[in-house]
Amino acid sequence: MKLLREKIELEGIVLNENVLKVDAFINHQMDPVLMKEIGKEFAARFKTEKITKILTIESSGIAPAIMTGLELNVPVIFARKRKSLTLTTDLYTSTVYSFTKQESNEITVSKDYICEGDHVLIIDDFLANGQAAIGLAGIVEQAKAKVSGIGILIEKSFQPGANEIIAKGYRLESLARIESLKDGKVNFAPKRQI
Ligand code: G4P
Ligand code: NA
Ligand code: NA
């Protein structure tokens, strides 16, 4: 997606060879116009999948997920990283290990919101090691629903997540794919060959 690549080039900051800072438009300040376009782009890419729900994880996945849900006219659910005081119903849970933070998090979704027969589109901001996306897919499968696809804003193609998701047979759509972050520069990857 050209608009997102341009934004990354103009406002992204390469922190090191592994990390791109995008606090200016995704992770801290957010750009609603960009998010709206991202929602349209995901809606277009997944329009044939008969999506019934969108699933993301708090917090940075919520903005692009809600814009996609608005376009597709379906509910948006975010998995929680902390147990909610009022969430007393039965929960689906997955354990997500973050290589970046070297810690495991239990993520949860109420059984009320994903049901057998749902066609679920998973949305997240970054794809690095893929553990968040795979954990979300696990929750969808516990609910006997279908993972209709995984939509990512920024895929770091040099990290293992993308290949792992494709190897598991999920449809992956990444709006910007980064091949490397060498010498303080963002090098985008060419279109994926499938
Ligand atoms: P994984 O799910 O792909 O395995 O990712 P990992 O555990 O390595 O990522 C941990 C957190 O760091 C996630 O956010 C993820 O979005 C974010 N992240 C990973 N790589 C980058 C990067 O290059 N740049 C930025 N800005 N973020 C990155 P989180 O802690 O779950 O936080 P939230 O922002 O969604 O609240
Ligand atoms: Na995230
Ligand atoms: Na993040």
UniProtKB/TrEMBL annotation:
GO terms for molecular function: xanthine phosphoribosyltransferase activity. It catalyses: XMP + diphosphate = xanthine + 5-phospho-alpha-D-ribose 1-diphosphate. SUPFAM superfamilies: PRTase-like. Xanthine binds at L20, N27, K156. Residues 37-161 form the Phosphoribosyltransferase domain. Keywords: Cytoplasm, Glycosyltransferase, Purine salvage, Transferase. Its main location: cytoplasm. It is found in: Cytoplasm. Pathway: Purine metabolism; XMP biosynthesis via salvage pathway; XMP from xanthine: step 1/1. The keyword Cytoplasm applies. Its EC number is 2.4.2.22. 5-phospho-alpha-D-ribose 1-diphosphate binds at A128, N129, G130, Q131, A132. Belongs to the purine/pyrimidine phosphoribosyltransferase family. Xpt subfamily. NCBIfam families: PRK09219.1 (NF006671), XPRTase (TIGR01744). PANTHER family: HYPOXANTHINE/GUANINE PHOSPHORIBOSYLTRANSFERASE, XANTHINE PHOSPHORIBOSYLTRANSFERASE. Homodimer. Converts the preformed base xanthine, a product of nucleic acid breakdown, to xanthosine 5'-monophosphate (XMP), so it can be reused for RNA or DNA synthesis. This is Xanthine phosphoribosyltransferase. It comes from Aquibacillus rhizosphaerae.
